[in-house]
Amino acid sequence: MHHYCAICKSPFMTDSGNAAEVVATACGHVFHRDCAERHILLKEPRCFLCGKPTSASALHKVFFSYEEGEYDHELSAIVQSGTNWMAPNAPLPVDGLQREISALREEHAFNQEEISRLDKQWASAQGLAELYNDRLARLDRLTEETNKQYVRAKEALAKKASEQGEAGEA
Ligand SMILES: [Zn+2]
Ligand SMILES: [Zn+2]
């Protein structure tokens, strides 16, 4: 028969070394040390089972008395490899997180500079577009004017031709 850690659902083994060390909270609930510390430090400082406030320093080691025949070295190795994700007493990855945060801040500042640079580019592009639109409108007016002049010149030519024709008939 084995008792289980409610956090990782693995059995407690007494001969599996520090990684699977068993601890109890002040409220009496029993977990693997790694599981309990991970829960308390990374999720919330409360007992995983009953929710009573607790802290990593309040955990105390539990000692089981087992008969030799209950040891299962293969299972114990599996439990150990499944629970030693973080070495006991290893520092929390706070440094790494802070580096990540400051890297993100730098990236954010860079992105804001990039955005304001693009905003300026966009504004000057809009200014250029307005300029070109003005020129196009002017060209349109010029073309219209030229067309009118062309029509007037054609009319004048036609009138002259017909006057010459009348003169020739006369
Ligand atoms: Zn566990
Ligand atoms: Zn509890």
Instruction: Identify the strand order in the major beta sheet.
Output: 2-1-3
Which ligands does the model contain, each kind named once?
zinc ion
Instruction: Give the low-pLDDT segments.
Output: none
User: Hey, roughly how much beta strand do the residues contain?
Assistant: under 5%
Q: What is the H/E string?
A: EEHEHH
Terminus-to-terminus distance = 136 Å
Q: How would you describe this structure in keywords?
A:
170 residues; mainly alpha; Herpes Virus-1; 3-stranded antiparallel β-sheet; 3 helices; 58% helix; binds zinc ion; zinc ion binding; zinc; Znf_RING/FYVE/PHD; RING-type domain-containing protein
Polypeptide structure, described:
This is RING-type domain-containing protein. The protein has 170 residues and is mainly alpha-helical. The protein folds into two domains: 18-92, Herpes Virus-1 (2-Layer Sandwich), CATH 3.30.40; 93-170. Helix content is 58%, strand content 5%. The protein is built from three helices and three strands; from the N terminus they run ββαβαα. The chain has a three-stranded antiparallel β-sheet with strand order 2-1-3. The longest helix has 76 residues, at 94-169. It is rod-shaped and about 140 Å long. It starts with 21 loop residues before the first strand and ends with a helix. The model has no long low-confidence stretch (mean pLDDT 82).
